[in-house]
Amino acid sequence: MKKNSQEAFTIQKALLAFLVFFVCFTVIRFVEVAAGIDAATGFFKQSSPLHGLFYALVILACALLAVYSYLSKPASQMRTVGFRSVAMCIMAVLLGLAFLGDGIASFGQISDLHAAGGTFRERMSSGELPLTLRGIFGFLSAVYTFLLSHAYRTGKTTAAKARILALSPICWAAFRMVHHFVRKISFTKVSDLFFELLMLGAMLLFFMAFASVTSGIYSEGTAWRLCGFGLPAALIAGMLSLPRLVFMLIDKEAYINANHPFQAVDCIFFCFVLLLCITVLRNPSAPAVEETAAEE
Description:
Layout: H1 2-8, H2 11-36, H3 49-71, H4 73-76, H5 86-115, H6 120-125, H7 128-154, H8 168-182, H9 191-215, H10 224-249, H11 264-282
């Protein structure tokens, strides 16, 4: 009975639920960004209980995806490396470039803080330290994902077992969260900030699971978290990124809050998680390519 109940929860159904949530929430988000949010401040133009309801629905959807993944036997057997995939190789390269761009942008913001003048204490209170660490770990995360791209190209696991570098995306997400908390503003009143903090929390847990499964350290019973935290993080990342990208492409950037612009790394992360789930779904039991003696 337990085995049958586990097998009833499949990754296909989780992805279907994800798709339904993504379409519904993205439509609502388009309406909010276009008509309900003051782009200059990020606050809602009018107070409404519907805003709190939307927060609750997104949190509930994330919780449902996490619980579904926990109950899913296929999700508990997911792998991150050990198989060849041209698509995953390309996506890992794109994610690495996005991390690289985020690191460059972080140091660009630090340069702007110095150009604006102010004392050391004022710069620290503006988030210079977490921004610096975010930039450093952004660069290291780029190196790690480039190694992953090699692993997906060859199908071998050696290049992906850089255990110290595997911590880089975790630290990057953590310091990005810290940088958000430095801002003296209510995150419940600024929906961009609220959703980004929620996304980064799930993203951090996803990267922890990814590092654990990839390196084989405390990985037993961890694989379900790749879907359980990856899908909620991707859901919010896509929901935030798509409206920003569309308004940017149609030259309506006035609708976008300057403190929360389009982030390429969030958009690529959305694609990376979905492609990982789909790739494993299509080829769940392919054996890993044997390591050569030279690589060992």
